[in-house]
Amino acid sequence: MLLRQRGFSLLELLVALFVVVLVTSLATLNVGSGGQDLQLESQLRSLADINTLAADEAQMSGRDYGLLLQQLNLRGERVYRYSWRERREEAWRQPSSGHEVFAERDLPPTVDLELSLEGQLDSEFHLGEDVGQAKPQVIFYASGEVSPGVLTVRQRSDAAVLWRLKWDLLGRSELLPRGEALDPSESSASAQFRRGQRDG
């Protein structure tokens, strides 16, 4: 008895092709998203490390250092930039040494920042690129103390917490992964400043 071999219909081939393309697209999206997550984590860990270095430099040089946070509008997108300053007799300036280490850096345009500084009722991100002699928000004093606070990084699309970088009076910092809550005593002692929802 002869069996007839039946080939695939055009519709079956198109469905199979669609499934392959869909699976490939999802895999690519997941890999891309994971890469962005790793890049953001690496950037925040670097920020914490350079803050520690700034605290050490302040003590060794006898000059206060500071972390300056800005909100910019670049190519129609709101972007947050951070850099470091050194207090001199005339004003806050870029550090006189370590230019590459203390260079300004931009966070991805997909995230928003919230800054909470203990004991301060008003703290804002500097708007625009013309910061000149602007005073940084977080001060690393030559005495070894630091303005305690928390920097919260949120996903812009849904406001989900991605990371919290917090530091204490002695400059010891901790990077907390997504959604990890602060202690109630810390959140009540700190003033929350939400600037991420504002347009630059």
Characterization of this structure:
The chain is α+β, with helices and mostly antiparallel strands. The protein has one domain (35-181): minor pseudopilin epsh domain (minor pseudopilin epsh fold, 3-Layer(bab) Sandwich), CATH 3.55.40.10. The protein is built from 2 helices and 11 strands; from the N terminus they run αββββββββββαβ. The protein has helices at 10-61, 184-189, and strands spanning 65-74, 77-87, 92-93, 105-106, 111-118, 126-127, 138-140, 149-155, 161-167, 173-177, 190-194. Strands 1, 2, 3, 4, 6 and 7 form a 6-stranded mixed sheet that branches. Strands 10-9-8-5-11 form a 5-stranded antiparallel sheet. A hairpin with a 2-residue loop joins strand 1 and strand 2 (77-87). The protein is elongated and about 85 Å long. It starts with 9 loop residues before the first helix and ends in a 6-residue tail after the last strand.
Topology:
Elements: H1 10-61, E1 65-74, E2 77-87, E3 92-93, E4 105-106, E5 111-118, E6 126-127, E7 138-140, E8 149-155, E9 161-167, E10 173-177, H2 184-189, E11 190-194
Parallel strand pairs: 1-6
Antiparallel strand pairs: 1-2, 1-7, 2-3, 2-4, 5-8, 5-11, 8-9, 9-10
| Broad CATH class | Alpha Beta
Mean pLDDT: 79
Which class of secondary structure composition applies to the elements?
alpha+beta
Could you tell me the CATH topology label: minor pseudopilin epsh fold
Succession of helices and strands: HEEEEEEEEEEHE
What portion of residues belong to β-strands?
Answer: 25-35%
What would the principal axes of the Cα set say about the shape?
elongated
| Strand segment tally | 11
- Integer tally of domains: 1
- Number of separate helices: 2
From the 3D coordinates, which CATH architecture would you assign?
3-Layer(bab) Sandwich
**CATH homologous superfamily name?**
minor pseudopilin epsh domain
Calculate the terminal CA-CA distance, rounded to whole Å.
78 Å
- Rg is 24 Å
The major pleated sheet works out as: 6 strands, mixed
Low-confidence residue ranges? 186-200
Tell me the helix content. 25-40%
Domain General secretion pathway GspH: 50-167
Protein name: Type II secretion system protein H
Subcellular location: Cell inner membrane
Membrane topology: Single-pass membrane protein
